[in-house]
Amino acid sequence: MTIAMEKNVTLEDLPGVGAATAEKLISAGFGDVMGVAVATVGEIVEAAGMTENAARKVIQAAREALEMGFESGEDVYKRRLEIEKISFGVKSLDEMLAGGIETGAITEAFGEFGSGKTQLAHFLAVRTILQDPESYVVYIDTENTFRPERIRQFAEGQNLDPDEVLRKIKVARAYNSDHQMLLAEKVEDLIKKQGLKVKLVIVDSLTSHFRAEFVGRGTLAERQQKLNKHMHTLLKIADSNNIAVFVTNQVMAKPDTFFGDPTQSIGGHIVGHSSTFRIYLRKGKKSSRVAKLIDSPYLPEGEAAFMVETDKIRDL
Ligand code: GTP
Ligand code: MG
Fold first, then answer.
1. What pLDDT, on the 0 to 100 scale, is given for residue 197?
2. Are 46 and 89 found together in one domain?
3. Same domain for 59 and 105?
4. Average confidence score pLDDT of the chain
5. Is the same domain home to 87 and 68?
């Protein structure tokens, strides 16, 4: 995934880029040096209103500022050794995920309404703090479904101090997709400026605002573009800080209608390709829930059945 290691270079370190130009680049979606490095000359000309020659220089400088290129398999392996797993403490789920959800990656839970996405997110938040009492969780809530009461119940179920756990969860309500994207970008500040040891970032739900705001075919491309950018931000948070990102995504149960294949979540290939792990959730027998791992890079496809209870999530 990582093709470039970023040094501490900002847009304004690039030749001919002052505060005003940096502002223009950012608002056109070129928020960092990486974005500029992979942009075309035309894009930068349009975004920053500079000449082709100047744009070419800026892109060249951005590319040089990044150590773009290849790294050895050994380096990739070393980085993989740093990956941590956040376990559910639920045997079937942990086995399916070979230990739990990974840091440095995005895990997407998708399924129809009531399939347990939000419950898993709450439970994971508590489990993260159980596993590392120093750690913090960021919860970006787009549907107003974050429930501190639920966190308290799960915390008590894990023998944790509920107040302490709630203190460790930084919640932000996102009012629209732009706000959601901005909040994701602000996670870096919590880490760098406030020095919080963030281990898990939850976006619940990833797609609801995008779906509501972009209706009709004309705006579909724009939606995908924004979603792509958002996923890129999340991937970068995960990758450069060794954080686990957990996103939820509602899909229709009926295969025929709007979005086609039920295992095809909204945002389609964009979300699918940027998520390292995808878990499809459905309702099972007797109010159980079934999780299925879909196209993981190296884990076998598997299924796990679980129950949501008042104080915990447990094996069937
Ligand atoms: P959408 O956000 O609508 O797409 O659904 P979701 O996938 O996020 O579903 P959610 O995680 O909210 O799951 C809701 C289900 O969890 C309910 O139908 C209940 O079965 C279960 N649940 C939620 N709270 C409790 C609780 O306090 N006790 C028990 N036993 N079950 C609960
Ligand atoms: Mg939900």
1. 97
2. no
3. no
4. 88
5. no
The residue that leads in pLDDT, 32 or 286, is 286
**Which residue puts its alpha carbon closest to atom 16 of ligand 1?**
116
Q: In testing the pocket of ligand 1, which one of 306, 308, 309, 316 has its CB within 8 Å of the most ligand atoms?
A: 308
pLDDT (average), residues 68-86: 84
Beta strands in the chain, from DSSP E residues, in sequence order: 4-6, 66-68, 85-86, 101-102, 105-111, 136-141, 169-173, 198-204, 244-250, 277-283, 289-294, 303-308, 313-315
Smallest CA-to-CA distance from 30 within 54, 16, 12, 15 is with 12
For 182, phi then psi, to 5°, come to -65, -45
Which residue segment(s) compose the domain that 128 sits in? 82-315
> Which whole-number Å values give the CA distances from 167 to 125, 170, 200, 312, in the listed order?
12, 7, 14, 20
User: In this model, does residue 99 exceed pLDDT 90?
Assistant: yes
- pLDDT at residue number 30: 85
Q: pTM of the full predicted structure? A: 0.80
Atom of ligand 1 nearest to the CA of 120: 11
